[in-house]
From TrEMBL:
UniProt keyword Metal-binding, yes or no: yes
Organism (species): Sulfurovum riftiae
GO molecular function, one term: purine-specific mismatch base pair DNA N-glycosylase activity
Protein name: Adenine DNA glycosylase
Enzyme class name: hydrolase
Needed co-factor(s): [4Fe-4S] cluster
Annotated keywords: 4Fe-4S, DNA damage, DNA repair, Glycosidase, Hydrolase, Iron, Iron-sulfur, Metal-binding
Function: Adenine glycosylase active on G-A mispairs. MutY also corrects error-prone DNA synthesis past GO lesions which are due to the oxidatively damaged form of guanine: 7,8-dihydro-8-oxoguanine (8-oxo-dGTP).
EC number: 3.2.2.31
């Protein structure tokens, strides 16, 4: 593997995304933040809209752990998968309490098993933090790396255990940081799903699947169902009722209530749709004017802008404002 490692490092120095901000720091916290943000989210989105504003609001683990959850969710607004933000906040609180007990500032542990025990940190995130923040000789296993391994070894339906074994066998233990960053970049720019650029790849000489790369791995067919809901906007004195969401989906965000059957005195004002990863949400929106306050919390549209709400609830507010302005 020595010659392959040399090719990988040479490619990375010339073509790798070496200037990404989380690759140019040594503080484990922003590296950890980037790993969480990049779960299910493209680099471009994180870089352009979320990474720097979040760090500006919460520049340290301590400031994140001391912040109220609502503030954290507000800065995460639009990034989706809000459990990531909740677990990030919870992990910061755990580390803050541990640091306070020891009389030191909160810090991320370097040990993979200890990292794995923190809220929201899975096996790959723990490995990524260990490799990138602490330069440990371990591999990472995100989607692009999985695709590379499948093509290198002609694996159509690999299991996680085998992939991790292969990854550990390939990792450059002398320079795991550049190696892992390079592997992710190769997967993102060369070993892409549809039209891989095999002739430019530093792994081409050892790739068993290069003649039929699109065969590996086997693409899973999935259909995205549509979920339909009736959404109620309860209005009292020009203020809109919102509730704190519970349950797994969008937990902790403010939102409008859904109803199986619209209230008799309510009027439909239109529909909004929003696509999530696993389903499409289609909402028929109703307005109900209350003579007396029947809900716990009411907000003006301007006040709602300062709350942590989902994209679909933002669309509902816009629909309501467009309706009353007509």
């Amino acid at each position: 593997m020595k010659s392959i490692h040399e090719k990988i490092h040479k490619w990375y120095k010339t073509h790798g995304r070496t200037d990404l901000p989380w690759r140019t720091v040594t503080d484990p916290y922003p590296i950890y933040l980037s790993e969480v943000m990049l779960q299910q989210t493209q680099v471009k989105t994180v870089l352009e809209r979320y990474y720097f504003p979040f760090l500006e609001a919460f520049p340290t683990l301590k400031s994140l752990g001391e912040a109220p959850l609502d503030a954290v969710l507000k800065h995460w607004e639009g990034l989706g998968y809000y459990n990531r933000a909740k677990n990030l906040h919870k992990a910061a609180q755990v580390l803050l309490q541990k640091g306070q007990a020891q009389g030191i500032a909160p810090t991320l542990p370097s040990d993979i098993d200890t990292l794995f025990k923190l809220p929201g940190i899975g096996k790959n995130t723990a490995h990524a933090i260990a490799a990138f923040a602490f330069r440990q000789p371990v591999p990472v296993m995100e989607a692009n790396v999985k695709r590379i391994l499948c093509r290198l070894h002609r694996l159509r339906t690999p299991d996680e255990k085998r992939l991790w074994k292969l990854a550990y066998g390939m990792v450059d233990k002398e320079n795991p940081f550049d190696y892992n960053q390079a592997m992710m970049d190769i997967g993102a720019t060369l070993c892409i799903p549809k039209d891989p650029k095999c002739d430019l790849c530093p792994l081409e000489s050892i790739c068993k699947g290069k003649n039929t790369p699109r065969t590996y791995p086997l693409k899973k067919k999935r259909s995205v169902p549509t979920r339909e809901e009736h959404i109620m906007i309860s209005v009292y004195n020009d203020r809109l009722a919102l509730t704190k969401r519970s349950g797994k989906f969008l937990h902790g965000l403010w939102g409008f209530a859904s109803a199986e059957v619209p209230l008799c005195a309510s009027e439909p004002i239109g529909e909004v749709s929003h696509a999530y990863t696993h389903f499409k949400l289609k909402c028929k929106v109703w307005v109900h004017h209350e003579l007396e306050p029947e809900q716990e919390s009411y907000f003006t549209p301007e006040e709602i802008k300062d709350l942590a709400v989902s994209k679909v609830d933002e669309k509902i507010v816009k629909l309501y404002l467009d309706t009353i302005q007509q």
